[in-house]
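call fold(seq) -> tokens
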Amino acid sequence: MYTAQPKKLLIINILDILKKYTDENHRLSQKEIADILKNEYDMIAERKAIKRNLMNLIDFGYDIEYSEYVRRTPNRVTGEQEESYILSDFYLVRDFTDSELRLLIDSLLFSKHIPYSQCRELIGKLEGLSNRYFRSKVRHIQTMPDMSMHSQQLFYTIDILDEAIDRHCQVSFTYNSYGTDKKLHPRKDGSGRIRQYTVNPYQIAAANGRYYLICNYDRYDNIANYRLDRITDIKLLQTPAKPMDKVRGLENGFDLPKHMAEHIYMFTGESGIVTFRAKKYLINDIIDWFGGGVTFFDETDEEVSVRVRVNFAAMRRWAMQYALHTKILSPEPLAEQVKNDIKKAMENYSIT
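ret:
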């Protein structure tokens, strides 16, 4: 039991009770609030005081719902029936519904770019946005052990990039690749020195379970994508970022949905119209990968032709992944590249 508290904390305790115990399916009367105050907060309060503080919370801006009932009682002097109003069924309306919180928690659990310890910490904070009933439902939630490698600088990197994008400033960083020791190693230039990347940051996006920085590498005039979990030693520079309209592909501004649909593997390089023939049972996968911008035509019972604007390097990778079910029709150079890729793959399995 808590140490006896001063009356001035009554309004804080009532708000705490609403946060802990109420939602649309769990409501409290003034008497029930009084009982919790007595049993858990060692505070005795009359209903009038509870009602007054509830109304003060509402006036202050808290979204508290309640029901209003009419009660008829005899007047002590005249004996005539008089109407009075009782307020009950109080509950605090949440910023997030339980289903929305569960969606956010599931997103964390399936994330590939957030370290396990930080994931559990964030889940605890999300649980705190609801009440005890929600927390009891998610106690069983577990995720896989932390088997993948993560950059412990990820959240710091995100903070710096957010500030840089907001201030239209450049950033510099070291970009890393994994070695056979399963550790990140800095990329180096031709002379063997650690290579420093200076970029103009425009957007952070999530794709395939990873965070990517969409930017322009300052030496060139095209779009570049970098994985945030492979960025270390990031620094915010005071030099202004290159305007978007000076970057090839961003002359008319940045269209994130279009960019993500074209860059399914977040490869850089040229994009264009690609047509391919696919088995019809692959339609779900095609829409999952390319979104609603695809065009279907020349449909038969078994196959359909598809037209989509996509990054050529990404399409080359995708075509290999689905080589048993698709065939590139155009452009012809891309089709030839995939043919050669398949030949080389066969050579890897040839008997010597």
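The longest helix spans residues 332-348.
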